[in-house]
Amino acid sequence: MTKLTLTSHPFLLGFDQLERLVERTAKSGNEGYPPFNIEQVSENCYRITLAVAGFGREDLSITVEDRQLVVRGRQAEDIEDRVFLHRGIAGRQFQKSFVLADGVDVGEASMNNGLLHIDLERAVPETIIQKISIITK
């Protein structure tokens, strides 16, 4: 019996990368830290919000690498002169990845009250109708 994959369907021509994209997303290793929300702000705009309490702007980096939005956080270690009786606020480094569809662009990023907001916008492609002539041979 032949294994039927998503990309082997005859109506899905040129979607070979879709299966690789799904595999890459599954292997990205995103754990639950930091917690995040993804919301649809308008028809073509989205916002990713990450809870980054304790991180400053200089502790965070946002990059787009191969259609993947990557947010990294790393705090400077200044624990040597501090004595914690209880430490419940996570301050560990993290990397969170989000795969972006073609046509989705990253807008601005802002921080407010310990939340990092990253705005995304999907460009609306214009509809192109192409008429193909039939020639007689």
Strand content: 35-45%
Q: Helix share of residues?
A: under 10%
CATH class assignment of the domain at 33-122: Mainly Beta
How do the helices and strands follow one another from N- to C-terminus? HEEEEEEE
Cα end-to-end separation: 41 Å
- Low-pLDDT runs of 5+ residues are none
CATH architecture of the domain at 33-122: Sandwich
Give the radius of gyration. Answer: 21 Å
What is the count of DSSP helices, taking H or I runs of 4+ residues? 1
Question: Tell me about the biggest sheet?
Answer: 4 strands, antiparallel
Q: Biggest sheet: strands side by side, in what order? A: 1-2-7-6
Overall pLDDT level: 83
CATH topology of the domain at 33-122: the name is Immunoglobulin-like
- Gross morphology is elongated
Could you explain how this protein is built, in words?
The protein has one helix at residues 16-26; strands at residues 36-42, 45-51, 60-64, 68-73, 94-99, 104-112, 115-122. It is built from one helix and seven strands; from the N terminus they run αβββββββ. The mean pLDDT is 83. Helix content is 8%, strand content 35%. The chain is elongated. A four-stranded antiparallel β-sheet has the order 1-2-7-6, with no helix packed on it. A three-stranded antiparallel β-sheet has the order 3-4-5, with no helix packed on it. The protein has a domain at 33-122: Immunoglobulin-like. The protein has 137 residues and is mostly beta strands.
